[in-house]
Structures
1.
Amino acid sequence: MPTTRLRPEPGNQPSNRIDGRLDAVVHSGFAVLMVASAVRYVMRHSPADNLWTVALAIAVCALYAVTAVLAHRQPRRGRQQLWIPWMVALVAAWAALVVVAPSFAWCSFAIFFLTRTAFRGWSGYVAGGATAAATAVGLFRMSDWTDIAMLLGPLAAGALLTLIYDKIERDAALQRRLFDDVTLAQEQLAAKQREAGIATERERVSREIHDTVTQGLASSLLLLEAAQRSWPAETAHDDVRKATDLLRRNLADTRSLVHELSAPGLETGPLPEALEHAARQYVDNINVQVTGEPQPLPSEVRHALLRVTQSAAANIKLHAHANHASVTVGYLPDAVTLDVFDDGRGFDPAAVPPPSANGGYGLRAMRQRVEQLGGELSVESSPGEGTIIAAQFPLTRPADPENAPKEAR
């Protein structure tokens, strides 16, 4: 079962990591352009002009730094109320600086992106528009109010950047929604997988209980009822002894099931002896035969063979009233087969009632065991003609469960 994936923290989302890298690039660009613009301005103007302009540039840098720090530390919700005074002061100082000293116009890009990060809605458009307008006025002034391109260029660039930024924001919002949807789908899938695992484990435990405890208790009850009818004859003592032995084995099977231990002799003992031991718990005169060349089997196949044999033998004891019964294990090159035959009274497989509190789980549990391992189970019987339960397990389990052979119900 795949492990459950928890919903990631918002700070771990890919879009937030990309935003962080973009912010770092924008802030670094602002610092480099401010230094370059200041050097250009100082070299082209007299010290008297430099003093107030450099002081204003330092104020812009300080306001920018405070706003950038708040942008990094504060969550998106409620940031607009917190940043209004800082951003208003930054835009006003920047407008004054770029009008007085158009050399700093190149820093407008960083100011524009910072205003769009700080504000949402109409306030973001106003702040970005004010930045573009101040830049346009400064450059137009630098051209002695003659070059119309200096006026229209920043305005057109501001409009273009606004459209691009809006597109980026819409894409980022869509990405966040998709990320949340995928995360929610993963959580739902993990929950369904847990539920499926619980259901599978319940089915497995119910089959184990049916094939061991339930069948044993039913057979013990028959033996004790027979002993009660024939008491105090010698056969009654034999029935009581058999019932006692069967109950002891049921107790051992129950403890094994509780502690998730395998059935006695299944893992290390020869398979024919293990099957004979399991079958003779219910039918004393049953015969076990082997055809083909014996070969090692996967533990889950051995376990299924044992449980199917137990369940089939218990059904013979409880329902068949057979004189003879046999178990045949066949080894094929790529499969192993199991046939359990009895000459009892038989039944109509199509008329078997559904499982209920009175029983009816045997054939269903056998079929589930076999099909879980990619095998096939068939039941051949008719009233008065005996019964054959045949199972076949592939020795190479299909990689895709959908491609496993399935018997027509």
Note: Confidence is low (pLDDT under 50) at residues 1-15, 75-80, 259-265, 398-409.
2.
Amino acid sequence: MTTDLGRFAPTRQWMRAHPLATDAVLAFGAFTAMVVGSFADPHGPHGPTFGTRTPDPFSLLLMLLGAAALVFRRRQPRAVLAVTCGLSLLELTTGEPRAPVAMCTVIALYTVAARTDRPTTWRIGLLTMAGLTGVAMLAGPLPWYAQENIGIFAWTGMAAAAGDAVRSRRAFVDAIRERAERAERTRDEEARRRVAEERLRIARDLHDVVAHHIALVNVQAGVAAHVMDKRPDQAKEALAHVRDASRSALNELRATVGLLRQSGDPEAPTEPAPGLGVLEELVDTFRHAGLPVKVIVQLDRAAGALPAAVDLAAYRVIQEALTNVRKHAGPGARAEVSVVRVGPSVEVTVLDDGGAEPSAAEPGGGHGLLGMRERAGALGGSCFAGPRFGGGYRVHAILPT
């Protein structure tokens, strides 16, 4: 929160940079006001008159000492208040005519109230008000009901109230500034967290796309190389699958990398993310690669369509699980995929029998299983992957809808 001070801004900046000099100027002004006020007689025949009385030297000395104490009002506010109160009490009991030494106490009391808490302000303010007013009424040369005595009570009370109001406003401004700074820090942390989550999501998508399609390309390329001489027709078919898999990989990579573009880029892709609606196309790529896959999908359409995040996560889990089967299971392996909606969740299960001779490489050496668990965890679900009794592997994910 800032205040436009206009032409007074340089002056205020100088006052903040030189507090002792500022207090010295204030003390000089208070001394001048007290000296001038000591020449005024409030009991003139036609109201207050000026120049009809003269303060004695002792009162001038008390005013000078009180003004000098105000120079240190910010460094030692309570000590300055005690000194000015003592000087004021001395003037109230001995001064004739009385000089306005209590003005120093008013300024010191305001400083204490502006720099302490409210209960302390009440205690010190009431003690100062009662002490000065009581001494002025009972021990002073004027009658107890004189307006000067009532004026001391009023001025000290206003000083305490003004100081407390200034302290409350400063605390309010500081709280607003702190809240704004905390909001700024929180906004920066939230932005960094969102960037990290987005990078992790894109990394998962890239891994799923590359791992799936490269595995299929590797298998079909091996088939083509194996039958190239004896069965060229089958080699051509395998190479056609290689071409299709590579084209799909390029398309999905283009769509994923397109997310990194600016929102106003006209070339950003607009195709929807893959989901269970194209599950058969995904499974067909594995079947063409020589992996028999059985699919069972039981989704209650009456319960409504799946959320986009759940649909994509289920697709990616199946894709990664089948890729691991193709990479790590032995020849003749068979897989089974089931997608079942159970209450508020979708359960995705991918099973394989391990094949005749399972590969020596164990799943889990890369980021595939970690990516599946992160996808499920991001939706508040879970994902379990492990060997089956009797051979094979099982992946089971629960995705809340």
Note: Residues 147-227 form the longest helix (81 residues).
3.
Amino acid sequence: MSSAATRSADSDHLWSVDEHLEDILSTVRPLEPIELQLLDAQGCVLVDDVTVPVSLPPFDNSSMDGYAVRVADVAGASQEFPAVLDVVGDVAAGAADPVRVGPGQAARIMTGAPLPPGAEAVVPVEWTDGGLGEGPVSGMRARSLAPEGAAGHVRVHRPAEARAHVRDKGSDVRAGDLALEAGTILGPPQIALLAAIGRGTVRVRPRPRVVVLSTGSELVQPGEQLGPGRIYDSNSFALTAAARDAGAIAYRVGAVADDAETLRSTIEDQLIRADLLVTTGGVSVGAYDVVKEALESVGDEDVAGAGVEFRKLAMQPGKPQGFGSIGPDHTPLLALPGNPVSSYVSFELFVRPAVRALMGLTDLHRPRARAVLKGDEALRSPKGRRQFLRGAYTDGEVTPVGGAGSHLIAALAQADALIVVPEDAESVEPGAEVEVVLLG
């Protein structure tokens, strides 16, 4: 751990939010780069700059279905006095050796087909009679049904300027241009660009594998029958979804009962597929807080590895937290409190930045903004604690949603921001400006 961790051997030390986050980010290192096929690289972070090996488009091509012509041959063309041109053939997309267009000639051309030698512009088929000798047409007949359309004459009813309806070679990107910068997250448009410039594989930092475990003998899986004193496990679903939203490949493990040996065994089993482990529950000071018991009572040679430290933070919700590394590969582990709001707020503040650090990103945090507090009463906050309250943010204003209780899941579902009340404030009046963390 960092110097911040070694400074606090005293278990009564109250860590600040910033100290805890600094300790996490000073420990977590980006995953090693690997070469992946394009579709496997979706959601990953590009390691190297990618330059364009071939211009896009690689040749002048038509942006319309129509006729490739010389500008002089259609000058002054009108509905009353059309330009009559000899059709010398078809130019289809993918044509390798297109026909040449000479004086008084035209070539029927399809969208994306290379502009044939001698042609200077393309007139859309709607500006012509389509070779039928009548008025303007709305389209071409399929070549298989009317092969004679590639010969004969065509009447053009409008003039065309040079390069009209022509996509110039390199008009998208030119050979040698920077296509994508290192650090780019590869989404569908970026995958499309890589494919368009001929890249079959790309070097990336892989999406981190995050394993989420919830603890508590009271937890029941959704869909099962609730018994007396039991509640449904929502934390593991919330945090797995949050990990995926952060960019990770996330695995949810069913709730583990309050038994230290069972938890140790489960964690050992999960290490094989984890770049980061997240537990929720069992980190406070109760007699059944088994995460602390399981991870504090094993030696360096066992699952704990470099060790997990449990600490108290000057924040609300989320005072009890744990962080360290476990197993032979020193896999990072973040132990979050079990109350649903506490665990989710803790994820946003600490786990999400860790996931993005593993991905090799520099932009680790949710965006923040200043907002005017709306509502009928002041926000109260315990002195010396940084409080994070749920809020609904719109157009520079934020309204509290629900109360301060760390069990209020329904209110969390309505929130799209966290209202930050700093440590030195015990109350914030409506109309005051506050900092908000934007969640969506």
Note: The first helix runs from residue 3 to 6.
